[in-house]
Request: fold
Amino acid sequence: MNILVLGSSGSESPGHNPPAFLVDGFLLMDAGTVSLSLTREEQCRITHVLLTHAHLDHIKGIPFLVDNIVTGRQGCRLSVLSGRDVLSDLSRNIFNDRIWPDFTAISISGSPVMSYRQISTQRPFNIRGYTIVATRVNHSVPSYGYIVRNSENTAIGYTGDTGPTDRFWKRMAEYGVETLIVEVSFPDEMTELAMASGHLTPSLLQLEIRKMRKIPERIYITHLKPFHETTIREQLCRISEANIQVLHDGMQITV
Ligand SMILES: [Zn+2]
Ligand SMILES: [Zn+2]
Reply:
């Protein structure tokens, strides 16, 4: 499995783009950054977007991706997957024919260019032969963490935005996830804000790692607030329990 990091930041500043992870060229986990980082052909190859939640930094690439799909006229289609609450936020507040067109109502050659697919946390579901497991995590709005497993049983976990969680680590152990992408948004000095807004700090992550039944071989950190990056990186170095690496835009992960 190959994961291309299109964006891995918790906000925007030069060289730091919001989260988006392209799995094997077709499956996008979150869509904070898309069209500015991919060619026309690469954008057309994306068939599925798996959204963790509806916050702007995780969805803002979709409007332009779909716009490019329509104007590109290459026959591409996009399926947007998430929980009912997330899809409802998206259709009501973004693709509402006011902020941006409702692309589910725009058809080319007889089929809509964009469609929504509601996912369940009760049972795994399938996207082009990949097994996806969705788990509710703890953020300020309805949010889901995902485990993506290919046909060779290679599995990665992506928390999206979350504060402390038990459910996701339990699921991760069940599915033998050895590669984890987890958020750390704030430095330890901002723990109160992190807890109030459903995010992690380095020390909170350390406590989470200690809760894990089996610690993944590789833990990649995403969603750092750019203005606090240096401090967060220094504090992450104190975690000795796991093999930790901070992601950067443009990085490729092969598992
Ligand atoms: Zn968020
Ligand atoms: Zn976010």
Summary: The chain has a mean pLDDT of 97. The chain has one domain: 2-254. The pocket of zinc ion (ligand 2) is lined by residues 10, 55, 57-58, 161, 223 (CB under 6 Å).
